[in-house]
Amino acid sequence: MSLKKYLGPLSSDNPILVQTLGVCSALAVTAQLKPALVMALSVTVVCAFSNLIISLIRNTIPPRIRIIVQLLIVSFWVILVDQVLQAYVYEISKLLSVFVGLIITNCIIMGRLEAFALSHKPWPSFMDGLMNGLGYGLVLIVVAFFRELLGSGTLWNIPVVPHAWYEAGYLNNGLMILPPMALILVGTIIWIKNSKTRRAK
Amino acid sequence: MSFLQRFSEKAGKAFEKGKPLHFLSSLYDAIDTFTLTPADTTRSGSHIRDAVDMKRIMITVMIALCPALFFGMWNVGHFHYIANGIDAGFWQSFGYGFLRWLPLVVVTYVSGLAVEVTFAQIRGEQVAEGFFVTGFIIPMIMPPDVPLWIVAVATVFSVLFAKEVFGGTGYNFLNPALVARAFVFFAYPSVISGDSVWISHAPDAVSGATPLAILVNGSAQQMPSAMDMFVGTIPGCIGETSKIAILIGAAILLLTQVADWRIMLTVMAGGYVTAALFHITGTCPVPGYEQLLMGGFLFGAVFMATDPVTAAHTSTGKYIYGALIGILSIVIRMLNKGYPEGMMLAILLMNIFAPLIDYCVVQRNIHKRQNRTKSIHNSR
Asked: How far is B252 from chain A (nearest CA, A)?
């Protein structure tokens, strides 16, 4: 089985850029790179393993209660991820606060469970969840890179804008810290992507 | 003139399709139409109601802005010399203000037109006249000492994200000049709020608090008299201080019927009633009419709220739109101490709601007419 057929979510079928799912958390956690990366990894883990488990038990779930079963399994993984974050990266866990818990309601995860895991074998389901999580994470990292660089003048909490610039009158862009600018950045990425794919056609 | 025209025609050949300079054809077109008579004038457009074309409307608005601009130049110099303890004459003050304003307006036009020309070229359209007024207004609603690179960034941002992504002039639902100001306000608050930015190059000890800031934190003794606020000898953005000059501009706009009286009237009425209510209930120490003289209220009411592209289009809608701008701006001023200038936010908010207001007005009209035909049918 080739890896290539799973790469769609990273580019042409990206969950944020094409399906516009999971935008809310993309706006909330991308003010800095560190929380954005942790969030991206958390969503990837939850998405991949929820897909795997649902796919394993897909023939035993009664169709009428499948949403409840899906929610149960997703929340199991979210709690697990939350506990790990609190144990090992407590500071970032506090920064992400409610948004880790809100992964349960992330449309990407529910969407992949419904659209893919319920009708596919475990290994393809796992890969599908993994790639969708990574596609989500990719956009998060790009948005967080620009927001942290232009909004705080740092990257990964390390100052990168030279001190001399500030003395010459350079100022950090306060709007970058606020969620509206994240929306505009996501829109700009969609814009660039659309104009490129249209040209390719 | 005729030799210039011949030269332009000759030069224009180099910009035709297939010629080496074609990639600059929109720039050539813009200069040609702005300076010389265009070969073809606008016949239909976003807000054309009679024989007057878009270019005439834009130039009328720019003429109407001039009194406020000239007073603003003098005022910038006036406060600069007072703060530094220098006794300066009229022309010295005026010259100082002119030299503060000139780089601002050059930077605004260059950065904004660069974006406009790029997009016109990509789309294969001509550069629309809309930016000439936007670029004229942006320096007037900035503090005199705002860094030039911030003006450039804000102008590019507003032209790109408030106008071009929605399809260019006539398709923007937000006023681009106000978006530029809002961008500076939220992105670089230190250059456009506080007490020290309103007087050009003032020594640290001199406070240049605007009347609105005094209303929020200061004492009543510091408050300038209503006459000062009306004439305009108060610190503030370059174009907003003189209410007399703005009223002259308003008269020009109303006489030429470029701006709609309904919006101007209802903005003032809504603002006055709300301010008077705040005064009666004791929340606001100054009488209602003084609120209208403070900050950018009048400038916004005359030049911003009446922007034909972003305002409501139906007559009933204009009353609602204007009244809500007046009410909201005073409410934001009085109830949110973080935003002493509520006019900008009120107009932007109502820009967003203008299409909804129009939709409701039109729907109500349709229902009324339907009911009327029904009742006629029933009575037969």
From this structure: 37
